[in-house]
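Reproducibility note. Readers wishing to regenerate the assembly model reported in the main text can use the exact inputs given here. Chain order matters: entities are listed in the order in which they were concatenated for prediction.
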Amino acid sequence: MTDTVLTKEKRSRADVIQRLAAFGALLLLIVAFSIASPYFFTFDNIVGILIATAVNGLLAIGVTFIIITGGIDLSVGTVMTLSSVMAAVFVKRWGLPIPLGILAAVLTGTIAGFLNGVMISRMKLPPFIATLGMLNVARGLSLVITQLSPIYFPLESGWNNIAMGSVLGAIIPGFDIPNGVLIMFAAAAVAGLILSKTVIGRYTFAIGSNEEAARLSGVNVAIWKMAIYALGGIFVGLGGVVIAARLNSAQPALGLGYELDAIAAAVIGGVSLSGGEGTILGTIIGAFIISTLTNGLRILSVPQEWQIVVTGLIIILSVYLDIIRRRAKA
Amino acid sequence: MDDMLVQMQGIDKTFPGVHALKGCDFDLKRGEVHALVGENGAGKSTLMKILSGIYDMDAGQILLKGQPVSIPNPHAAQKMGISMVHQELNLMNHLTAAQNIFIGREPLNFFFLDEHALNQNAAKIFEMMNLAVQPWMKVADMTVAKQQMVEIAKALSFNSEVLIFDEPSAALTDVEIKELFRIIRQLKDNGVGIIYITHRLEELFQISDRVTVLRDGAYVDTVKTEDATINQIIKMMVGRVIYESAPEVPEDRGQDIVLEVRNLSSDNVLKNVNFNLKRGEILGFAGLVGAGRTETARAIFGADPYDSGEIYINGERVNIKNPSDAVAHSVAYLSEDRKRYGLCLGLDVKKNIVITIYEKVTAFIGWVREKFVASIASKIVEQLSIRTPSLDQKVKNLSGGNQQKLVIGKWLAKDADIMIFDEPTRGIDVGAKQEIYSLLNDLAAQGKSIIMISSELPEILRMSHRVVVMCEGRVTGELDYTEANQESIMQLATQRNGGNSVPVNA
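Running the prediction on these inputs yields the following structure tokens for the assembly.
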């Protein structure tokens, strides 16, 4: 018995090290950039990083659920855009109140996710193809609905405050953290609870770990998969609300490439692309690593095209480290 | 009679092309361990999969405590108290033991999972089993034996009265098997009826009360274990009137040793494997599933690493690190799973044939000389009489027998000297089998050296000049074709603890 206990301790220690590794990398980046530039560690810049992370963080939360089931969602970027367009249609075109606009965006994301789930678990399409199709459908619909031009929210509507206002600043003067950031952290907390403490979270891991075993144990895998894709869509819809509020507009041409940043954040944060493993905390740290890196390199006047190269290298490195860790475990 | 838990009567089951069960009978009493034995393919697993609701039966009836029942799916079986512990584990490695046991039946605390209750419920089961397993431990971090215990705990969590074990000991060490037996005895004392499928005949005498033997899908007999001997049971297992064609063994085999393996060992899978292969010889590799035959072949071919040992080809020590090294030494391996490892199913016949020799059929900068390819391919197709409408036919459209010939053709094109065939006739029909056999004989007559791994004893007896028998990663014996028969091979194939490796040239 003692030997199994020992291996367990050894292994969970390896897991902890992995989790600390992502967090440590983030701290290291912050320290390095702070030393390299006096402008980095300022309140305004940190707020800038936070708000820059909010949208990608929300999309990454959504895609984390999907990836843990062993699937993938390429449509999160353009579905986010479609969600923001629907919010604009409700609030600007139809003059409906803001809460209904938010509801429209969240529902759009949920429905798109649900349809992805139907295609994957009922029509048996591979997730890559189903969500690639959804990527284009959502992108096209955004362009059709807006007739190719952005829809701006009336300034007096207060839509902008959803992301850029600061409830915190009103309570604690000077501590002007934008609401968009709070939305992301709140969503992360809820998502973390769902993933670790509820049945749908449990089945997310079970399906990703061994779908056939889950099915043979009486788990209705088809239905739960649809539910999980829909659940991921809720966070994508929220991402649509935040980006529309940040830009105070729905930009129909936006969204392509966002899915890759979201997937990258999840993967850097330790979500396994083969399914069964991952945490919301890790994903959020992954999202912060990407935005901190982008922000820091910009402050150091590294050209934007090189920032993209570095992001790519970080993805390769983090997945390679994960593979090494697995090999050591096996 | 009220002790009778299960009665299966006249169970019949046909799969496409195979009559898997022919009117089988089986019964199980409360508080007994009833072993089910038979050769590979005798129908043991099929019979039990019918009892546990995984397969439907075509005819026959099942009585549960005297009442006729129908068992449409595994879920229904579990509700009736029938659970099966599968040979291949069905666990979710990323989840904990407790989470696995109660998957689909999680206790809730309002909206949230009640992890505490979950772990306690699992702990109760482990306690009942007298097992020290932490419910919160991830399955991935457990030994195979512990994982097996989790499967058993899961089966018990349904309050099972009938527990089916499908070769539970296959992956366990001796100590772990003792632990398994302890738990089985304890379950038995609690009145659970246990069906135990095994290949390890000596286990029968340690654990079972009765033994039922199946052969070729038919019921042979049920005997009390205490009245039986291993030899009797082996006779019952193999005693069919086999289609005993005289061994087709060409006498003029050479004496030069082309391949010699010394003390090949690899991490519990292979233990000091020694044997040699002569020019123009067909060397049969017999043994039960999991005896280490495929592993030996893969180690020689460089597909898996080995820890220690030496391999000599034509008297020279070689260091084969990967399959392309092996191919360079003119060694070919024809996998038992030809669809997964032997062929590119989506490509056509000629592309598959030349895949081993692309460097020969390409001109400068890799331009493929299509005419040359076609001429090589048509020669092979003709030589092996592969039935295909054209050289451009996609391989997935060929029959199993023709696919197998194509795999052979691929290595003929490469002109390999040493060919390792892993279950060359698995899943192909009788006519095609004959052709494969004569092809093997032709190859041997041409001076190719052949290792033929097969789980079909008649095939081994018919084809082999010599037979190497393996059990649990060890070579338990080597028989010349004059001494090889079903009984002598089965003896060696089930010889778990005795018998050291037979030295080369013994």
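We highlight two features of this model. Residues 2-36 of chain A form the longest helix (35 residues). Chain A touches chain B through 27 residues (CB under 8 Å).
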